[in-house]
Amino acid sequence: MRAGFRGLRLSNTMTRQKEDFVPLDWRDAEIPEAEKRVRMYVCGPTVYDYAHIGNARPMIVFDVLFRLLRHLYGEDHVVYARNITDVDDKINARAARDFPDMPLNDAIRRVTTRTTEQFHTDIAALCCLPPTVEPRATDYVSGHANGHDMVAMIETLIEKGHAYEAGGEVLFDVTSMPDYGSLSKRRLDEQQAGARVAVDSHKRNPGDFVLWKLSDENEPGWGSPWGRGRPGWHIECSVMSEAHLGKTFDIHGGGLDLIFPHHENEIAQSRCAHGTASMAEVWMHNGYVQVEGRKMSKSEGNFITIHDLLHTEKFGGRKWPGEVLRLAMLMTHYREPIDFSVKRLEEAAEELSRLAQKFDYEEILNNWSLRKELELRDFVPGFVEALEDDLNISLALRYVREAVSNVRKSEFGKVTQIIASLEFLGIFRPEIIGVYSTGTLSIGMSPHSALREKNKLLNLRAIAANTSIRDAQFEASSLSNEQLKYFVSERGIVHVEKTEQISELEIQRLVEQRLAFIGDKNWAEADRIRDELAEKGIQLKDSKDPETGERLTTWELKR
Ligand SMILES: Nc1ncnc2c1ncn2[C@@H]1O[C@H](COP(=O)(O)OP(=O)(O)OP(=O)(O)O)[C@@H](O)[C@H]1O
Ligand SMILES: [Zn+2]
């Protein structure tokens, strides 16, 4: 087998073919094994508003690819860069609207920080791993330490005759690049002939695009040789991908809508600035999330945010767990369109609970900790091969389904393969395997059962740490001498509650007080204490000491 080929085949928009994937570093015998890297760049969000579920699709698709690359090449051998676009006129408009009394730059900062945090929270709930690096556009406009900045790249493009200044802008001259349009397969002459948009008078060609534009006083701006201004949209990705992945790298991804003009223009900038034959070896594009046949988008107004799906009942009258949303995306091949509907989410939810029914909680807990001990990295048969075929997740899921229907609980190895596969796809959480567990740790419990309960609880904690449950709550630091009730809710949230504040000493004190009342024949007070304790779950038993004949009261916890 060729060096670097691990069986992975990917559809390349550039060649319109499914190709064997051989990362660049593996083609170069000079690079030592330990230093080889697979390098992937994905265009991230423009942070001015909540991300909608359409925006989530590339994040989820390329998260699966990231996981697969890590599995095939080793975790330390994959670099995944996904940017944050925090400079954009839509951001400026939102800042002025939301914080009218604040200086614009502060307001912009507020909007981008708030939106970025929200984005991170949303996609963590969709079980996406953080990328290796997440550069922000504003850190790369000018004066970047290694010279990896937008102003420097634009200067290079002007020097090399690919860009020109006109009408308060710097524009890329598309005719300066003979094979401009190679990704979208749009020929320049066709574009010009068919151009219906009025040609801006200062543009040499209708297809020329903005690299830099001057800013008004009340717009954000950076100093540059062409005056105080801000970058056009495409230049940031050329600059940040070079800064983190080099002049040419392995995979570049994003949604279908980015092929033209965004990716086409990234290619033009990068290749012309660096004098290279390609920017990325493989170009991958996910299909649209659609609503009634039309692309979900903010401008169409036909969108639903990830946040609303997770936390409100706006869509289909219920909240949808992150795994369900994620599975709803993964059920369709990444290049095909998805019609987003309540029905689809219901199907995903049903599929998850079908996968769940087979297992019993106790079993999984035991297997889980064993698996951790053994560091098993084994998946159900056929699973990895299916993913290697251009991310054929539907087929991979079919293998998981088959494994689930054939497995017996005692088949530890197979059960762990199933869990590893579900976990790999990011759809594993305790609740999807039917977990609804409650338990009690209480005073008066036999040491053996207390230990069992305690171990269960610690296992829950381990599960919470190992999956993406971020909201797990553990209030209990000491598990002895307190009655603690814990439960895993349907959403997988682990709560630990103190169900009883009363201490053993206190019970003892009350028992003695009651005996004193009995001695005084004050039955009313004696009964009051008995009822009070019963309310707290403590049952008293009266007996006589067989030797002394003395009245004896013991207590136990009633369930
Ligand atoms: N309906 C959709 N289906 C699939 N991917 C989408 C959809 N809408 C946007 N994307 C992708 O989401 C990523 C983030 O893009 P970005 O933040 O620029 O979205 P956007 O352009 O603001 O969305 P919109 O199209 O709603 O204005 C891009 O890779 C883009 O291709
Ligand atoms: Zn980009």
From TrEMBL:
Q: What organism, scientifically named, is this protein from? A: Fulvimarina pelagi HTCC2506
Q: Which UniProt keywords apply?
A: Aminoacyl-tRNA synthetase, ATP-binding, Cytoplasm, Ligase, Metal-binding, Nucleotide-binding, Protein biosynthesis, Zinc
InterPro entries per the record? Cys-tRNA-ligase, Cys-tRNA/MSH_ligase, CysS_C, Rossmann-like_a/b/a_fold, tRNA-synt_1_cat_dom, tRNAsynth_Ia_anticodon-bd
* Intracellular or extracellular location(s): Cytoplasm
User: What's a single GO CC term here?
Assistant: cytosol
- UniProt GO MF annotations: ATP binding; cysteine-tRNA ligase activity; zinc ion binding
Q: What family is this?
A: Belongs to the class-I aminoacyl-tRNA synthetase family.
Could you say which residues form the signal peptide? none
Name by which UniProt lists this protein: Cysteine--tRNA ligase
